[in-house]
From TrEMBL:
One GO MF term: phosphatidate cytidylyltransferase activity
Cofactor dependence: Mg(2+)
Protein name: Phosphatidate cytidylyltransferase, mitochondrial
Bilayer topology annotation: Peripheral membrane protein
Main location: mitochondrion
Gene Ontology biological process terms in this record: cardiolipin biosynthetic process; CDP-diacylglycerol biosynthetic process
A matching Pfam family: Tam41_Mmp37
Amino acid sequence: METASVARALELSGPLRDLLPPVDFCCAYGSTLLHARPDGTSMVDYILGVNDPLQWHSENMERNPSHYSSWMARLGPDAVTWLADRVGVGVYFNPFVEWRDKRIKYGVVGMRDLAMDVLGWDRFYLSGRLQKPVHVLVDNSDIRKVNTVNLKMATSASLLLLPEEFTEYDLYAQICSLSYMGDLRMLFAEDKDKVKKIVEGSFQPFQLMYRPMLQQYISEGILKISTHGQRKAFKQDCGVSATNELFSSLPWTIQRKMQGRFASDGQEILTRAVASSKDMAATCVRKSLRRQDMYRIERAGSWLQETLETRYSRAF
């Protein structure tokens, strides 16, 4: 690891050493990390994975009661974990936390919920975050290794959504866009150029993350390298066999939408999920990632909780 990277990791790990209770996983992310010289109003974002969220919030409330709104501090850690599970897709955020000369925001999630989302897109919240470059600072449970499954699923889903020919930039933009499909925040709250800024600001980290998946699909004949001007480009096999190879890599939450059924001896038996065409597979991916209304409400709830905490927590 380069000296600059080590120094950056030590700087980002400061709140973990000096401020917060121990965690089992931590990554830093956000647009602030894309800028060499962020301004004084910038805020670094963290996801903290802990084995027991209730115990962790209990200890953190004793150490850092000012991180919580007054009404939430009065209700206690049980209310925090209830809000995270019922509204915040398993994550509870404390924003605008002052630490030394910086502002941070951290979201706390149970390790079981984190692993389930990464492996199965159970709620497609943290899994979407970890499909983009992050700075992993603590990883006691080897989430980085587990996340390779998530990265392969993201690659497969994006290839199904992309046309036959596309550039390397197009691929990373599509991967980055997956977690924003059906996201209510993108309709009225988020920066419309967010995807472009993320990809352009983290192009090399994207390349490092997804190189093994691309090499695998090239070796299997699903992808071929070409050029588009000065940019690396790809041409993919859009046949039924290649399509189902990609589709079979997706989480079961998506595959089951294409699962067949037949009756045998009075029992309904489920068959293997098969896509008859690339267009059909792409449509299934789009519909699945837009999710049912309940998941949209949960996702919006997480944003609403962040927004309410951000705007009003210091007013109570």
